[in-house]
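Handout, section B. The chain below has 238 residues.
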Amino acid sequence: MEITNKTVIDNLNRFIESAKAIDMSHSMEMGMPNWPTQPPYSYTDINRLDWGDESFHRSVTFSEHTGTHVDAGAHFVKGTPTVDQISLFQLMGRAVNIDATKTAKRGDYTLEELKQWEKDNGPILKDDIVFFRFGWDEKYGIKPEGKDFYSDWPGISSKVGEYLRDKNVKAVGTDTMALDADGTDYPCHEILLSKDINIIENVNNLKILPKFFAVIGFANPFKGGSGSPIRLVAFLDK
């Protein structure tokens, strides 16, 4: 007997017909921001149609943590999953979009602020994917522009990290270079990644998204890797 998966296919088609997609990823291109100790994105043309070749392709070099990307547990915590071991459903689900734009440079969004946000908007739930919008994507730019993106970014406090860990969310994201504020020793990386809660950084377009939406993202399965650029997509009702 042939298995057609008709229910899944029908549901997917209805979803596609009813949804609007918003790209939350920055384009991968020369001159894009990169962590200072990591190699920048670069490419070399190998074959080109205007050279008379039969096809066009490039050789590409970049860090696992380039552009909009996900941190695997192994990025900071020994013995935790590598990026190829992240579940295909891990970066898929209800997204929570928290406006943290009033946070000071190098400051922390506090647990008190988060609890007040929940009182005003509704609770963060198990398996949510929580994003903090600091407005830093507006500073993002291709060199020589975008120099302000590289320093003084804010983050979330360790108490917020612990609170989200205890909520058993799937992932926590930010539009900055790192979830922890510039100049810290990355406490939330340890707190979240040690419990298989992934971190998503350099997120784009949070400003145009509502407080709750559906999100899907997939990591490249780099064998034994610490992270991966991702294509992160928000879905809204049409």
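Note. The CA atoms of residues 76 and 189 lie 7 Å apart. Compare this with the example in section A.
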